[in-house]
Amino acid sequence: MLILTDEDIRGDIKGFEQRIQDARDKLSELPETAGTWKEQKKLKEKRYILTSEIEHVKRLIDIAQEALEDK
């Protein structure tokens, strides 16, 4: 069993926040539209993946913060 310290959890939260920032940066670099239907489909998929990553990592941060509060 792995025992995490408060510092470990805080470090994880910082890493999670960096993951969110990286995904937001990639989202902002994507073009607004694409030329063809196929390119538009790929663009929509990229946006979905990045948005899903942000939401997933936000949930991880919530879990980590709860762990800090429970101690």
Features:
71 residues, mainly alpha, 2 helices, 0% strand, elongated
What does this structure look like?
The chain is built from two helices and no strands. Helices cover 82% and strands 0% of the residues. The protein has a domain at 36-71. Helix 1 runs antiparallel to helix 2 (37-70). The protein is mainly alpha-helical.
Order of helices and strands: HH
Number of helices: 2
Shape descriptor: elongated
How would you state the average pLDDT, rounded? 96
The structural class is mainly alpha
User: How many β-strands, per DSSP?
Assistant: 0
Q: Which segments are poorly predicted (pLDDT under 50) over 5 or more consecutive residues?
A: none
Estimated helix fraction = over 70%
Distance between the termini: 17 Å
Strand content: under 5%
Q: What is the strand and helix layout of this fold?
A:
Elements: H1 6-29, H2 37-70
In brief, what are we looking at here?
The chain is an all-alpha fold and 71 residues long. Helices cover 82% and strands 0% of the residues. The chain has a domain at 36-71.
